[in-house]
Write a structure and sequence with these properties.
Elements: H1 19-33, E1 34-37, E2 44-49, H2 52-64, E3 70-74, E4 77-83, H3 85-94, H4 98-147, H5 156-167, H6 173-180, H7 184-198, H8 209-215
Antiparallel strand pairs: 1-2, 2-4, 3-4
């Protein structure tokens, strides 16, 4: 392999070589010295070389081609490496490995879609859990108010919210707001007020028309 670990490193001039020769050179390096890993931590390519001179030459040529290689020493050998999906894709483009690049990009997009879907599913699951917990608190609060004969003393807005929650125990806030014909914020305020009253953190009954309007707002 010209330019790598051979005495004739200067016999071939990378700087004056045409693009097709450079591509062939890089393809040969990948086949002869390269290893590609698609580990969970991210894809990377390594080239293991015996001499620092050969490693520096390869790193310089990769840089001139648009890649961003790193260099490290491992067990007496020199390792030129490329890390990350973009760097691996760049190398595949440089070597003219169009089919490999297509397969790699397909796998990359598939992985990103799966990761995005998992995040959405996790978020949806968390939202559902919060909805279930909130609904459970609200239903228990309604039971407390009913048992104490206080539910019927509440303003119309709160009683309507309590009735709708009992009819739709698993509904989310948007669904309840739509059924009540109010905004999401108003529905949330009414349900939260029901819980507060059941816990004794607010007026136990509505004593006047003004109190009715204030509690049911």
């Amino acid at each position: 392999m010209v330019g790598l670990d051979q005495a004739g490193i200067g016999e071939w001039d990378w700087g004056s070589a045409p693009a097709c020769d450079r591509r062939a050179y890089l393809r040969g390096v990948v086949l002869g010295r390269g290893s590609i890993s698609l580990a969970a931590g991210g894809p990377h390519v390594e080239f293991v070389l015996r001499s620092r001179r050969g490693a520096d030459a390869l790193r310089h040529r990769l840089r001139e081609s648009g890649a961003r290689p790193g260099l490290l020493q491992r067990r007496g050998r020199w390792v030129v490496y490329l890390k990350g999906r973009e760097e691996v894709a760049t190398l595949l483009r440089l070597t003219g490995a169009n089919r490999g690049l297509l397969d790699f990009e397909t796998a990359r997009v598939g992985s990103e879609v799966r990761n995005r879907l998992n995040r959405l599913l996790n978020a949806e699951e968390a939202n559902l859990a919060r909805t279930v917990r909130a609904a459970d608190r609200q239903l228990r609060a309604i039971e407390v108010l009913e048992a104490g004969g206080r539910l019927q003393q509440l303003p119309d807005g709160l009683r309507a919210a309590a009735t709708e929650r009992k009819l739709q125990p698993e509904a989310d806030l948007d669904t309840l707001a739509g059924a009540l014909g109010v905004s999401r914020s108003a529905a949330n305020h009414r349900l939260r007020r029901i819980v507060e009253l059941a816990q004794g953190s607010g007026p136990q009954t509505a004593c006047s028309g003004r109190a009715h309007r204030r509690v049911g707002a």
